[in-house]
Amino acid sequence: MLYDLSLHMGYIYDVPASGARHVMRLMPLSLTNRQRLVAGSITISPTPDEQSHFVDFFHHPTTSFMLRAPHETLDIRMQARVQVESQPIAADFSPLLADLPEEISGIWSLAPDSPHHFLGDSPRLTQAREIADYARSYATPDLTAVQIAHALCARINKDFTYDPDATTVDTTPLEAFRLKRGVCQDFTHIMILALRSLGIPAGYVSGFLRTIPPPGKERLEGADAMHAWVRIWCGETNGWIELDPTNDIPAGTDHIVVAYGRDYSDVVPVIGVLKSYGGQRAVQAVDVIPLK
């Protein structure tokens, strides 16, 4: 599938802000045999006084910029064309849960995609007994890592209600778990914690979800903004798989990857500091247009 993407992120300040420094991770990745960034551009208004580009630990193209002068608004627009390849259906050669630690211990690499980075606590994710108990209730000894991942994905989709008014970006996974409501970020964090509590490496994927459904299919939830789903390491043979608990589907040609990380803190689209007082209002609009 070939897509044209557009993203608008805007911030309106009650009082003009100054001395602002921000970091952005907005451009879709090019991934071998998965997706290719054909072309892309990002515009920032007001024009930054300083701007630099680098690649972070998880190999994300990242932009840092600074605005010294007072400004009442910040406007960021991204446009990109991305080719997404369909993925072959892979047989389940993942180990049983009891055998997974041995396979993990055989991985000596500490590269960005090493499963070792995705097992323990991370900046936004600390183990919670309630979520661990929930995970154990669906992880029987006769299931493989892939089967457990699919079972938890389906269970979270069934047990939790998509409700954009129930949580905020700062809601903890345990709070969302107790509410049984939230958005893709909440469901993704809960599933990551559940998998890690079982010893299954899991991480966060930030990206886009197509907004125009195929003929005869319903529109997928979470398509009005950036989306999130889960990446799971299922042994040396199967490697990493990606599942979307918000919609209970594997990530496929509808899913466009922007960034991988341990949790949301590693993939925040725009983060920064500034001098101001009073509040601010944020707006976001996403359009994913399939071309063929």
From TrEMBL:
Gene3D superfamilies: 3.10.620.30. GO terms for biological process: proteolysis. It comes from Rhizobium esperanzae. InterPro entries: Bac_transglu_N, Papain-like_cys_pep_sf, Transglutaminase-like. GO terms for molecular function: peptidase activity. Signal peptide: none annotated. It comes from the Bacteria. Keywords: Hydrolase, Protease. This is Transglutaminase-like putative cysteine protease. The lineage of its organism: Bacteria, Pseudomonadati, Pseudomonadota, Alphaproteobacteria, Hyphomicrobiales. Residues 176-247 form the Transglutaminase-like domain.
